Amino acid sequence: MAETRNAPASAQGPQPVPAPEAPGRHDEESVFRRVVTGTPMVSLLSVVLAIVIGGVLMAVTNPKVATAAGYFFARPSDTISEILRPYAALVQGSIFNWEGADAAAMFYPLAETLTVSAPLIFAGLGVAIAFRAGLFNIGAQGQLIFGALFAAYVGFTWHLPAAVHLPLVVLAGIVGGGLWGGLVGFLKARTGAHEVIVTIMFNYIASFLLLFLLTQPGFQRSGSTNPISPFLDETALFPALLGPQFRLHAGFILAILVTWGVWWILSRSTTGFEFRAVGANPNAARTAGINVNRATVLVMALAGALAGLAGIAQVSGTEKYLSAGVAASIGFDAITVALLGRSTPWGTFFAGLLFGAFRAGGVSMQAVTQTPIDIVLVIQSLIVLFIAAPPLVRAIFGLNPRRKKRNGTASPTPTPAASGQSGAAS
Questions:
Q1: How far apart (Å, rounded) are the C-alpha atoms in residues 414 and 419?
Q2: Which residues are bridge partners to 228 per DSSP?
């Protein structure tokens, strides 16, 4: 027996041959994981780079900067002030208005940022949790629309007490988004349909279906020719947190609770472990006894439900009615939010706050400095570019993760082959 145990592998009979992997598949999955789970420093530096480049673009296109640059050496403060004015207006419109007449006016921008951030956080979490399971969810836009559609219908057709009505509205939105996302997972699990193609098509279906329904008697507001729904009942709305002069509502508190819930699912639950295992290596997860198809359907349904919460925040919190533009670009911005947040719940939460500040402050920046609001989209696009290219960010800032020690010598790590030879020699 001892001789058999110590015999070479070739002498113990034929060994199983590992199944060949599809060409490039492993590399694609590795790139995907690196992009969605990059280091926090790369995410932070990506934001800094995008803001700097955005400032340069605003400076070279601003005639006031060119005028002040003509006498730069006589009074450089004028040029610097003109360069910084757009970002000062962005901060003033998103965090604190130091020129406000009273405390309410001063803190209104912060409340507006939190209001705008709530749907971005919900939709970003929906994209992020799919990322963690190895699925690229492009369908948050359509899932948001379905969540808003179900929630608004319950909100303006059912007339119930607030203690019952609002929870039913939230439940309806979750069901609507979850069904639309779960259908994508079902198609992928059963037919192998790629989730990117399916979710993109589902976005169009949801958008045109919403536009059609808003022209029908059951959804269109009576007496109006515009494609908008009746107002939701007061009992179906999120309560205001800071009074009627602010738009901030309890949906933001729900966003905090949901973020904690997603963190608990991914970090503390068996289901979250299955999601992460499938995202890391579906073949290994299947070998370990995890039902990959079930995990795919479940994670897409959960992603859709989270995006559906974004639709609820729109119709029951911000807009108070359903319109064709209820989703705006929230579902697509959510992809950037999830990437910036490294597909982690709390990272996505703070990324949603940052993008909410961009959206809230961009209007003020345009009004005060006549800077096109499209520059905010440029900054967001640059953030995505840099997050997708960590080596570029590290090269710009001179960061080398494989920097070798210059002082002293480190003994090389022995290779398995060398270890085996030394053992044989002994």
A1: 6
A2: 323
Give the chain's end-to-end CA distance (angstroms, integer): 22
1 has a pLDDT exceeding 90: no
Tokens of 307: 């995006």
**pTM score, whole prediction:** 0.83
Say how many CA atoms lie within 13 Å of 283 toward its Cβ.
8
Residue 4, CA atoms < 13 Å, CB-side half-sphere: 3
Helix (H) or strand (E) holding 245: none
Share the mean pLDDT of the chain. Answer: 85
Using one digit for the tens of pLDDT, what is the confidence trace for 198-217?
Answer: 999 999 999 999 999 999 98
Burial class (CB in 10 A: 0-12, 13-18, 19+), 33: middle
Bridge partners of 249?
240
Using alpha carbons, select from 262, 307, 300 the residue that is nearest to residue 141. Answer: 307
Name the packing angle between helices 292-313 and 330-340 (round to 10°): 120
The stretch 94-120 carries a mean pLDDT of 91
Find out whether 64 and 82 touch, Cβ atoms under 8 Å: yes
Report pLDDT digits (tens) over 123-151: 999 999 999 999 999 999 999 999 999 99
